[in-house]
Write a sequence for this structure.
């Protein structure tokens, strides 16, 4: 069956979707919602979403604008109009996923968002496929290419955080405002989407303990290496019974671990399930064609009558990180954790196991007095 698409936004990802679709006979991008006229879209460009919403020929709306609004309004209207909705937009799904999933179910259509986690990696597709048969114990991984690029460079070259960040920006891996990447917010959204698909539990962004790599220094990296560790920004989620364990933090990994070996701006995302055991998915977490290709794969899956990722069982869940504990590397000028120090170094300590919620709550407060402090979980 030919899929007739209404495309929202025609930038990096949207332009890629249009180019891939154009080369296929089973896909037509009939209308493209734009803010301003754009070369290559003539005759298909529209400036009012109603033109897509009210077009009975359009069966799928593919969104690649970014942001929560107006994407949420358009998504709701598309689903209510009986159109499938496919998106690469993790900000939209992290903020409004539960509402959109409900609307999709109510209207007998599907919501898919493979490209929103891991860009070009078929992660959510395989996670949901695993889950229909198996029980997932945990999901985790390196879900942000920019931070992996930075951490990888700091471990393999003698470079400062600021210099690598500038290089990442010059290569187009990091935004001019890098906060979403280096402070962990992008990764936080991706673990929320993954946990929703794995456990039917949807966490509120504000509840997911998140600490990024903004404060990591070359001296920290020397200390990690002297201890035999490699540091990566890792997200973790587990079904916590009544609630959900979910957090994002710099993590020290044994140098022989798979995650420790992830190079450049690649991602590695893993589930651990009862029958399948541990399976990992590796690849480009961003970029025009890898990401656009996953948007198109979702559209093709819809043509094959594959369901959406989120069911009507998806429900908001409390994050409960108080029973999840491990040792931490902590570098601070404050007199802290000395009663829990297992190893002491030059300005840093390794603690005994501390609950994730306790460490993150401490850091949030302590940053007021020591804004340069850094910590990393040890797993
Ligand atoms: N780039 C990647 O590698 C990647 C990877 C994974 C996921 N994603 C996700 O994909 C989405 C798109 O990212 P992108 O990199 O393609 O961004 P982008 O290059 O900035 O493209 C977004 C496009 O949407 C247009 N737009 C914004 N608001 C609009 C509106 N209200 N109506 C119509 N068009 C509108 C923008 O127009 P103007 O330029 O005129 O503002 C721009 O052309 C985001 O949610 C992002 O998180 C991107």
């Amino acid at each position: 069956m030919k899929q007739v698409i209404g495309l929202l936004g025609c930038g990096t990802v949207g332009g890629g979707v249009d180019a891939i679709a154009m080369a296929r006979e089973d896909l037509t991008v009939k209308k493209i919602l734009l803010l301003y006229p754009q070369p290559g879209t003539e005759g298909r460009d529209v400036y009012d979403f109603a033109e897509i919403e009210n077009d009975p020929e359009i069966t799928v709306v593919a969104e690649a604008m970014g942001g929560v609004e107006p994407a949420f309004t358009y998504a709701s209207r598309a689903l209510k109009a009986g159109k499938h909705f496919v998106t690469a937009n993790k900000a939209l799904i992290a903020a409004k996923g539960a509402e959109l999933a409900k609307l999709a179910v109510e209207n007998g259509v599907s919501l898919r968002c493979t490209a929103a986690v891991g860009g070009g990696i078929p992660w959510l597709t395989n996670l949901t496929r695993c889950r229909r048969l198996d029980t997932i114990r945990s999901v985790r991984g390196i879900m942000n290419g920019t931070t992996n690029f930075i951490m990888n460079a700091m471990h393999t070259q003698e470079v400062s955080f600021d210099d690598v960040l500038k290089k990442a920006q010059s290569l187009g891996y990091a935004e001019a405002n890098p906060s979403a990447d280096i402070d962990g917010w992008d990764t936080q959204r991706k673990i929320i989407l993954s946990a929703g698909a794995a456990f039917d539990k949807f966490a509120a962004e504000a509840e997911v303990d998140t600490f990024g790599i903004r404060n990591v220094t070359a001296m920290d990296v020397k200390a990690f290496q002297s201890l035999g560790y490699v540091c990566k920004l890792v997200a973790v989620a587990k079904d916590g019974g009544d609630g959900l364990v979910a957090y994002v933090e710099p993590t020290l990994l044994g140098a022989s671990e798979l995650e420790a070996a992830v190079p450049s701006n690649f991602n590695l995302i893993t589930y651990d399930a009862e029958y399948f055991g541990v399976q990992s998915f590796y690849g480009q977490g961003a970029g025009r064609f890898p990401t656009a290709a996953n948007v198109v794969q979702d559209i093709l899956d819809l043509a094959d009558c594959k369901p959406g990722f989120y069911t009507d069982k998806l429900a908001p869940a409390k994050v409960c990180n108080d029973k999840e504990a491990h040792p931490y590397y902590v570098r601070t000028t404050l007199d802290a954790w000395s009663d829990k120090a297992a190893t002491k170094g030059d300005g840093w300590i390794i603690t005994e196991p501390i609950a994730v919620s306790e460490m993150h709550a401490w850091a949030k407060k302590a940053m007021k007095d020591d804004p340069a402090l850094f910590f990393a979980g040890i797993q």
